[in-house]
Amino acid sequence: MPNPESKEKYTYADYLTWPEEERWEIIDGVPYMQAAPTWQHQSISGELYRQISNYLVDKPCKVFAAPFDLCISVEDERDEEISNVISQPDIVVVCDESKLRKTGYFGVPSLIIEISSPSTARKDKLIKFNKYEKAGVKEYWIVEPENKLVNVFHLEENNRYGRPDVYSEDDEIKVGFLQELTVDLKSVFPNI
């Protein structure tokens, strides 16, 4: 189990030695323990995954749901040196299968969806937002179960996220880089 005060910077090699039953993330070398998700979180994640997965049948992109490791590395960084294990985003869509290995994806996905909670909101909206933007993730969704809202950020030509498109439980979201995929939020938030 990591102790943030005992080491200056943790890496993917450290992460692989930690107990499998514990969920951790490493961002800029700092470990963060993740709590078990609520049933509402699981319901939202399952429905988003189902809709995206159904669309991607026989298409080159793949969708993955947590637990699934996402390792965003800097150029020329060896796997064991990676200090940005954004471990287990709720949903990830990847379109380059050559970067799938070990416990997840080593590269920049096309879409990341985080289902936020009061305990993760700061990390999702600030730390991860900045990491995903800097890495070049095309589309980043922050789902807010309590408000039944989804904030969708698109990477613009200046490699920055613009103002979010905000959707409520009655809306449909057209996925920017998958032109024909529309996610129906009525099915995502029905009993939450």
Describe this structure in a few short sentences.
This protein is α+β, with helices and mostly antiparallel strands and 192 residues long.
What does this structure look like?
It is a single chain. The chain has one domain (12-188): Alpha-Beta Complex (tt1808, chain A). The chain is 21% helix and 28% strand. The protein is built from 4 helices and 13 strands. The strands form 4 sheets. The chain has a 6-stranded mixed beta sheet with strand order 3-5-8-9-10-11, sandwiched between helices.
Features:
single chain, 192 residues, alpha+beta, tt1808, chain A, three-stranded mixed beta sheet, 4 helices
Question: What is the CATH-assigned architecture?
Answer: Alpha-Beta Complex
- Gap between N and C termini, in Å? 34 Å
CATH topology: tt1808, chain A
What is the topology, as strand order, of the major beta sheet? 3-5-8-9-10-11
Please tell me how large the radius of gyration is: 16 Å
Task: Please identify the oligomeric state.
Answer: single chain
What count of structural domains? 1
Secondary structure tally, helices: 4
Structural class: alpha+beta
**Mean pLDDT across residues:** 88
Q: In the CATH hierarchy, what is the superfamily?
A: tt1808, chain A
| Shape verdict | globular
